[in-house]
Amino acid sequence: MSSTALAPPRPLIPLPGGTTMRGVLWQAALAIAVILIGWSLYNNMLANMAARGLQFGFGFLNRSAGIPIGEHLIPYTPADTYQRALTVGLLNTLRVAVLGVVLATILGILLGLARLSSNPLLRGLTGGYIEVIRNTPLVLQLVFWHAIVLQLPSVRQALNPLPGLYLSQRGLKVPALMADSALFWAGVAVLVALVAWWLLLRRERARQEATGERRATWAPGLALLFGLPILAGYVIGAPTVEWPVLAGFNFRGGLTLSPEFFALLLGLVIYTAAFIAEIVRAGIQSVQRGQWEAARALGLAPGRIMRLVILPQALRVIIPPLTSQYLNLTKNSSLAVVIGYPDLVSVANTSINQTGQAVEVIAIFMAVYLIISLVTSLLMNAYNRAVALKER
Amino acid sequence: MKLTAFAAAAAAFLMFGPSQAMAGRDLDQIRARGQLLCGVQGPSNPGFGFPNAQGQWQGFNVEVCRSVAITIFGDPNRVQFVPVTTQSRFPALSSGEVDILSNNSTWTLTRDSNVNRFNFPAIVFYDGQSMMVPRRLNVTSARQLDGATVCVQPGTTTELNLADYFRQHNMRFTPVVVADLDELRRAYDSGRCDVFTNDFAALAAQRTLLSRPADHVILPERISKEPLGPVVRQGDEELTNIVAWTVFALIEAEELGITQANVEQIAGSSTNPIVRRFLGVEGNMGESINAARADYARQIIRTFGNYGEIYERWLGERTPLGLERGQNRTWLNGGLLYAPPAR
Asked: What gap in Å lies between CA A383 and CA A386, rounded to an integer?
């Protein structure tokens, strides 16, 4: 710490060793205070629990949970343990957070660009959207989206816009691909196509550097991406598709996107995108006009000016606040509990109720959110360093 | 922060240390506070506990709490009602936010055990878990529900029974778990679920709040035993006794045929020693359980009537819930209610 730079004119209490020594003493005092407070809180908790005869421990994690969970990315039945139930909740949180971050970023960038558009209608609409969304509580928005989703037709009158695709109050039903060898080879084909596209892109870039001539790669790239899996399908056999069929109360088979998941994702994306849009706008406006003029003078098309000149410079301003938005989105996903999406907090709350181990379960989910946030920060900081202005 | 202020804070901290939980008895705390903190099902549970237009809590469970207040203070108004959800109720009780729960909590081994450390002094309502379905589904038995989507409240025995029942009968189901009872009911009402499951009486209460109550039927199966009653913390036997003997007084009065209308007349004229002891005309039963007054039972009956009267007022066939007495008749009438002898 540079305490020397801000040396106070007159010491409160004269201490030996000058300003450096004083700085060290102050920090030591602060550290001791923090440790004492933490220790007393912990002791207080143990004393209170002991007074009520409660045991502190994590043994309950291995007991059978008995709680049903509607959505699970890993196999789960009520006979499984609390540990597995909490893992299911965690995966549900990560699922909505990861998808939410990706979609909110895309929507946010588009909105941020639209906010700077020269078209007054587009600019005004985007401005209105951002102001309305940023200035109403997220919980309210989630309940609103949930209510909207529940207005979809009942399961028997499900909308069927495409074969195998059903939209109803029970969510979106899509055909599922069965995990068989054909699916495996189709996946391999997709991977091969992506690698080939990347190699092609590299070759074309080298070629452009050498000759100045530019050739687009998207046509052969897309051909590879779709062609290879189809070819694999012909040679090895197509993957088996499980179609959703209406049987009894619900659809059987296929994959489900539940209305709770959908409402939560929609709410989080729309809310966070409004904030990201403002961050993107600020970032773009922070790039000096001279950069636009220089790029235009070189004869670059508007789209390429944005992509090659402006955005890379704007990113330096955008990344740090964007990280906060990613963290916010992840933490806000805990509002899932309001509309019944089984995220970590929802499962943890139920576990608290069934086991009575409130302190332990809350400690677990606080630690988990902390870890998720720290990892997100770590990745974003690494990315920030990569795009930061490098002084050579 | 000024160093002096900091030093003072640190010194105070070291001298007094972390605050210790009071080891005093719950009943002493309640008396010192002058009020009983009673946890009821929030935001509203028609019939059992709900705020009226003036914001005052009313209903079956509310009168149970008010009766306990009569026993403790001799005054039914010395209660503060705290709405709790199915998820917040037990932490609220064990942390001391409320003294007693009167919110249709089921008596189970785990809750009564050394793990959760609660006491269930008496049962006020015998219930069983049921399933409600829209009439148009033409379902007549819970065994036909394979593959159904079920709306259920988290943190309840209901949630566990549901899983057990479908497992036992080798059926599949998709749970929709929402903590807020209003939000959950809206989900069922809009068709998000095929089935709404809860205790029978709670379903009957929720049905009155649906957009078209007559379009929904409660299936005949009772898939569990749900003995419901007030809950207190372990560790204060006196409070446990007070709650138990308050509930028993309501039942005993019905067994003895004592009602709100005739209690004073019977107290004045009865020669039956059981009745005289019960109403505090002779003996010291009130004092033995540390009640505020020797005639606490008489006071309760005068204020609210006996068990049957409270039941009929809030839950019975002339109320929107329209619940039959069923198992909740006294043992004399073929029910399960049975008060141990007051002597």
From this structure: 5
How many CB pairs below 8 Å do chains A and B form together? 147
CA distance linking residue B291 with residue B294, whole number of Å: 7
Task: Confirm whether B26-126+227-333 and B129-224 share one CATH topology.
Answer: yes
For this complex, say whether ipTM is above 0.90: no
Residues B207-217: tens digit of each pLDDT: 999 999 999 99
| Closest-CA residue of chain B to A168 | B192
* Under 8 Å between Cβ of B76 and B310: no
Handedness of CA B235, B241, B244, B250 (dihedral sign): negative
- The class that CATH gives domain A82-132+264-387 is mainly alpha
Residue A41: list chain B partners with CB under 8 A. 18
Write the residue in A40, A340, A352 that is nearest to B176 by C-beta.
Answer: A340
Contact A380, A322 (CB under 8 A): yes
pTM: 0.77
| Domain-wise residue ranges, chain B | 26-126+227-333, 129-224
**H or E stretch including A242?**
strand A241-242
Architecture of domain B26-126+227-333: 3-Layer(aba) Sandwich (3.40)
Helix%, strand%, coil% for chain A, nearest 5:
70, 5, 25
Q: Where are the domains of chain A?
A: 23-56, 82-132+264-387, 179-238
List, for residues B184-209, the tens digit of each pLDDT value. 998 999 888 999 999 999 999 999 99
Question: Check: CATH 1.10.3210.10 for B129-224?
Answer: no
Instruction: Quote the CA–CA distance of B143 and B324 in Å, as a whole number.
Output: 24
Rounded Cα–Cα distance for residues A336 and A343 (Å): 6
Pair A288, A317: CB distance under 8 Å: no
